[in-house]
């Protein structure tokens, strides 16, 4: 039987506080023991201390679930420069535990959640229910089951008490920042605020089931993207039932030949980034655990607890800014940001600083040539954009990115991180020109996507809750 998940703010805050204190004591001991040692020994001891501290953070994040685990999942996508290169593989393996194998809760405990929500026995609802989970998420576990009509389904069940745990985490945001600051200084108040605003919505499986059903309808008949439909009539606040999609997970995908990884990378890019500019909505949780590769080559996308629908005017603002950056229109870009309220201290920001800041974040999609995304490239852009230790763009980092754009930039960075984990190659700029400049597609997938769009009614705005390389850039368009 798994230990009971601590849910009170005090209990969870104490756990974090102990980790903070442990790191502080370890650092003091390390500094004291360094006296009189050679420079090489001091460097090695400092490195080992930092590795132990960072690994402890991973352990704390993984056992706490909730907000803490969501931060850990972000870390597992972006190969951040937290540990020396020679230890990176070991660290990534530990992070993969957060991503793919969250500590499990016993089947009997999870069965009680299902029966309590349905007000029926498990056997009344399902003809067969496999007790071993097939996946784990930040707030629940996923099982395979069969309905009485013979359909195979995936059943996502929330951990008991996770709602209280998440809300306790949200109240502990200040301590989260302190505990993570030493290893992850990029965890800024803005990042935590964005998590606070959006994570609680993940607790409502009824809303998620309805959202996923809408997206499944949106992509129905698509040649290479599939979203399993849900059964809202069988979904409750803590139980979500959807179609079961058999497929290979991300680690298996990473082992595929380069050509196949490149194809899947383009699909990921089109779904997580392209959908914003095509449908004015996007999934805000790009994550390796949220996709499967089917035997027919289609990629299934899962988990829509964090989903955002944006005002078309805001989407067009983002596209206009990216076009201005691609065309080196620094003055225009700065003016756009001032008008939108992104820059509230114009005297402190030059047009060039504004341009370089945007390019640091998205130049990978503005390079008009085949570009292989590496983990270092993805994490480097992220760190440069948000790490307060970096002196570059210090003025821009103090400006005000509206919440809706912060959410879409987070999705962009995490998509970039997934492509880095795949080491996918593509001319990302030529793909993006389909939605930035309304140009004809140049890839096989792009042509198939365009042909599919032609069979659908023209997209209409959807209303709903708001939830660096030095390569030559694309020629001016």
**Average pLDDT, to the nearest integer?**
77
Number of helices: 20
Q: Which regions contain 5 or more consecutive residues with pLDDT less than 50?
A: 1-38, 461-477
Spatial extent as radius of gyration: 23 Å
Roughly what fraction of the amino acids lie in strands?
5-15%
Structural class: alpha+beta
Biggest sheet details: 5 strands, antiparallel
| Helix content estimate | 40-55%
Number of strands: 12
Q: Globular, elongated, flat, extended or rod-shaped: what is the shape?
A: globular
Instruction: Quote the distance from N terminus to C terminus.
Output: 61 Å
Structure commentary:
This protein is of the alpha+beta class and 477 residues long. It has helices at residues 9-34, 39-64, 66-77, 88-100, 107-118, 122-125, 162-171, 173-181, 189-199, 205-218, 250-254, 258-279, 312-326, 330-340, 351-362, 375-386, 394-397, 403-422, 428-436, 444-454; strands at residues 128-129, 135-136, 140-146, 152-158, 225-226, 239-243, 281-283, 291-293, 299-301, 307-309, 371-372, 425-426. A hairpin with a 5-residue loop joins strand 8 and strand 9 (299-301). Helix 13 runs antiparallel to helix 14 and helix 16 (375-386) runs antiparallel to helix 18. The longest helix is centred in the N-terminal third of the chain and has 26 residues, at 9-34. The chain starts with 8 loop residues before the first helix and ends in a 23-residue tail after the last helix. 40% of the residues are buried.
């Amino acid at each position: 039987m798994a230990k009971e998940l601590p849910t009170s703010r005090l209990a969870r805050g104490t756990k974090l506080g102990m980790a903070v204190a442990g790191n502080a004591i370890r650092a003091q001991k390390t500094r004291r023991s360094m006296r009189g040692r050679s420079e090489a020994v001091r460097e090695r001891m400092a490195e080992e201390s930092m590795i132990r501290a960072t690994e402890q953070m991973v352990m704390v994040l993984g056992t706490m679930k909730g907000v803490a685990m969501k931060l850990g999942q972000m870390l597992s996508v972006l190969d951040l420069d937290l540990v020396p290169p020679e230890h990176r593989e070991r660290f990534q393996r530990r992070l993969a535990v957060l991503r793919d194998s969250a500590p499990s809760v016993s089947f009997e405990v999870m069965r009680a959640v299902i029966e309590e929500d349905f007000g029926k026995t498990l056997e009344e609802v399902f003809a067969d229910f496999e007790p071993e989970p097939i996946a784990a998420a930040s707030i629940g576990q996923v099982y395979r089951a069969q309905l009485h009509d013979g359909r195979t389904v995936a059943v996502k069940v929330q951990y008991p008490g996770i709602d209280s745990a998440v809300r306790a985490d949200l109240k502990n945001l200040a301590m989260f920042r302190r505990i993570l600051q030493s290893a992850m200084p990029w965890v800024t108040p803005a990042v935590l605020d964005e998590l606070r605003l959006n994570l609680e919505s993940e607790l409502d499986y009824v809303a998620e089931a309805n959202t996923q059903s809408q997206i499944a309808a949106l992509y129905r008949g698509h040649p290479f993207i599939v979203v399993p439909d849900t059964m809202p009539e069988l979904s409750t606040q803590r139980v979500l039932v959807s179609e079961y999609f058999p497929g290979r997970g991300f680690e298996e995908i990473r082992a595929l030949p380069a050509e196949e990884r490149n194809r899947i990378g383009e699909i990921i890019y089109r779904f997580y980034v392209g959908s914003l500019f095509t449908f004015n909505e996007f999934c805000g949780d790009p994550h390796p655990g949220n996709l499967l590769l089917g035997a027919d080559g289609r990629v299934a996308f899962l988990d829509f607890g964090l989903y955002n629908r944006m005002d078309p005017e805001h989407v067009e603002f983002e596209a206009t800014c990216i076009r201005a950056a691609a065309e080196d229109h620094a003055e225009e870009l700065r003016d756009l940001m001032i008008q939108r309220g992104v820059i509230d201290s114009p005297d402190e920001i030059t047009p060039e600083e504004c341009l370089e800041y945007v390019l640091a974040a998205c130049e990978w999609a503005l390079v008009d040539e085949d570009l292989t995304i590496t983990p270092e490239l993805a994490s480097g852009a992220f760190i440069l954009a948000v790490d307060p230790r970096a002196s570059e763009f210090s003025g821009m980092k103090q400006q005000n990115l509206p919440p809706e754009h912060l959410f879409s930039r987070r999705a962009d960075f995490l998509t970039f991180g997934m492509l880095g984990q795949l080491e996918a190659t593509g001319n990302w700029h030529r793909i993006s020109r389909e939605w930035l400049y309304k140009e004809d597609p140049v890839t096989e997938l792009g042509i198939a996507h365009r042909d599919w769009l032609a069979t659908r009614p023209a997209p209409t705005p959807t209303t709903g809750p708001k939830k660096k390389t030095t390569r030559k850039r694309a020629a001016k368009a």
